[in-house]
Structure to design on (427 residues):
């Protein structure tokens, strides 16, 4: 496929083709080049480091299994993101399903406890930052799955609207509409968190 | 503020507006402080969306993935459809085996297909094959002839189909006449006219209350 410039521009496709031919060194190279961003995406999507590692491994295994069936088009990372987002959304769906069939209390939550590691200096700043992150994380967890994916790809992965549209297989208009709605919801969540925290702080 | 300028502001914030549209919007922002305030609010809430830095990638992650892909054998790397098909075949085989086992064990006396000893003795040593094979003819099909319909009388009738002379008669070809169709010269009660003798035969009177209530033909037929 010499007449496809985007394919030639991304050496990842070549590594994938060699993986399909049984070259495990090429596959290891491919994993090494993309593991950071895929792990980060899964962690943002799922909100749990351990689950994110499992999910990222499974995404790479899916890529390995189906290496021969992917047609080189655009950048390889968009394909990885697409598989990753779908895989994480399936995991979230399963998580919700398990919660539903357990008939658990509404207060009882299976979402992993969010305990971020704070590397910043200063105890007070650290505490405030953790509280801010917790509010943002809770807000993201409450977003509908399609809005969550768009927001994470835009805000935390820094993808353009066009790239997000390519990853999710939707139009750019749908991207901006979902992003706008996600922002609105998160603003409301932050407002309500502030209003509930403020009286406690006063006392 | 309506939604369109807000989305435009968000696109401006994310650097997604075309340059000429961005210039237009910047000019408008300079003129309208309310719009500028909205942009500041959007920017602040976008910046507040902060999560901790992602956990570092574990050492040897890539090697572990490759190892899992290689050592998992065919099963772990087989596409989902193949694994589903294999699982289905195993499950089907198990179900068939269990079904057969329980079926044979469940019947008190399993049927024997071996011939009785007397039959074996009576059978000729070399079987004779008849030179002419008799093929049974098609069974005779009763044809019910249509009776001429009496005006005002509705009967169930069966008619023989119009059969092509070369076609063989088939029992499936016989048709039962549609009982809802009126006989020649007759119309249904709800169509407005009905033979007088029908009423007389039914109740002895054509305007009696029993005639209308018994037949439940509605008020329209009372004019009869």
């Amino acid at each position: 496929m010499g007449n496809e410039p985007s394919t030639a521009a991304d050496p990842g496709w070549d590594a994938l083709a060699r993986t399909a031919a049984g070259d495990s060194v090429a596959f290891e190279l491919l994993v090494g080049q993309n593991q950071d961003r895929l792990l980060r995406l899964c962690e943002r999507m799922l909100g749990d480091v351990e689950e994110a590692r499992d999910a990222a491994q499974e995404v790479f295994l899916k890529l390995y299994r189906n290496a021969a069936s992917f047609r080189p088009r655009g950048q390889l990372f968009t394909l990885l993101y697409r598989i990753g987002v779908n895989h994480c959304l399936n995991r979230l769906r399963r998580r919700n399903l398990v919660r539903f069939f357990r008939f658990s209390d509404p207060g009882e939550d299976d979402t992993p406890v969010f305990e971020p590691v704070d590397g910043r200096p200063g105890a007070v700043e650290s505490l405030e930052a953790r509280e801010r992150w917790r509010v943002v994380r809770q807000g993201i967890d409450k977003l509908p799955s399609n809005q969550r994916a768009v927001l994470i790809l835009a805000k935390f992965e820094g993808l353009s609207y066009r790239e997000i549209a390519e990853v999710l297989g939707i139009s750019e208009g749908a991207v901006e509409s979902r992003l706008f709605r996600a922002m609105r919801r998160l603003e409301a969540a932050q407002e309500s968190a502030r209003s509930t925290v403020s009286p406690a702080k006063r006392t | 503020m309506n939604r369109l300028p807000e989305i435009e502001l968000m696109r401006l914030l994310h650097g997604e507006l075309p340059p000429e549209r961005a210039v237009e919007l910047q000019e408008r922002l300079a003129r309208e402080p309310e719009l500028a305030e909205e942009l500041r609010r959007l920017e602040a809430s976008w910046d507040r969306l902060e999560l901790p830095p992602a956990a570092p990638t574990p050492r040897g992650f890539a090697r572990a993935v490759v190892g899992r892909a290689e050592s998992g054998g065919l099963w772990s790397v087989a596409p989902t459809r193949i694994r589903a098909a294999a699982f289905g075949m195993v499950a089907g085989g198990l179900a068939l085996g269990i079904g057969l086992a329980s079926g044979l064990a469940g019947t008190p006396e399993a049927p024997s297909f071996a011939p009785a000893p007397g039959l074996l003795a009576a059978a000729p040593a070399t079987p004779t094959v008849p030179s002419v094979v008799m093929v049974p003819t098609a069974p005779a099909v009763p044809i019910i002839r249509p009776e001429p319909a009496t005006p005002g009388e509705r009967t169930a009738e069966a008619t023989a189909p119009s059969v092509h002379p070369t076609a063989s008669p088939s029992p499936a070809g016989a048709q039962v006449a549609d009982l809802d169709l009126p006989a020649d010269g007759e119309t249904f009660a709800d169509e407005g006219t009905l033979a007088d003798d029908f009423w007389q035969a039914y109740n002895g009177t054509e305007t009696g209350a029993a005639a209308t209530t018994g037949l439940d033909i509605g008020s329209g037929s009372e004019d009869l």
